[in-house]
Amino acid sequence: MSLQEQLNDAMKEAMRAKESLRLNTIRMIRTAVKNAEIDQRRSLEDAEIIAVMATLVKQRRESAQMYRDNGRTDLAEKEELEIAVVQQFLPQPLTDAELIALIEQTVTELGASSLKDLGAVMKVLSEATRGRAEGRVVSERVRARLGA
Known about the structure:
Layout: H1 3-17, H2 20-40, H3 46-69, H4 73-87, H5 96-110, H6 118-129, H7 135-147
Helix pairs in contact: 1-2, 2-3, 2-4, 3-4, 5-6, 5-7, 6-7
């Protein structure tokens, strides 16, 4: 079942169960996907939909942090609940051990030895970790590995 079909089914279930937060969040995801399809003038594949949803999660995390910094915990909690709904459709996140192993494998395959090789390593890793790990975290780990 494609990700689009999963989203449609989940939306129907949320409607039947009268779960307004879940329904609104799924509608938000579908709207973001539709906007990306319009921009690219074609239907998106599952990997591209995952990238759109990863962006939505990142935006929600930033918003939640801003709300917390400004004392609006109610809005921050709403953003975090939306993150939880979006993450249900994303692949399982990588554990630290899996991420480190993936970084080691990529560094070895590319023969990377210094920070000069950061771009090449990140190019490969960004594809492999899309939707499963935050780019910032991956970048920090690669910098630490190449800088050592």
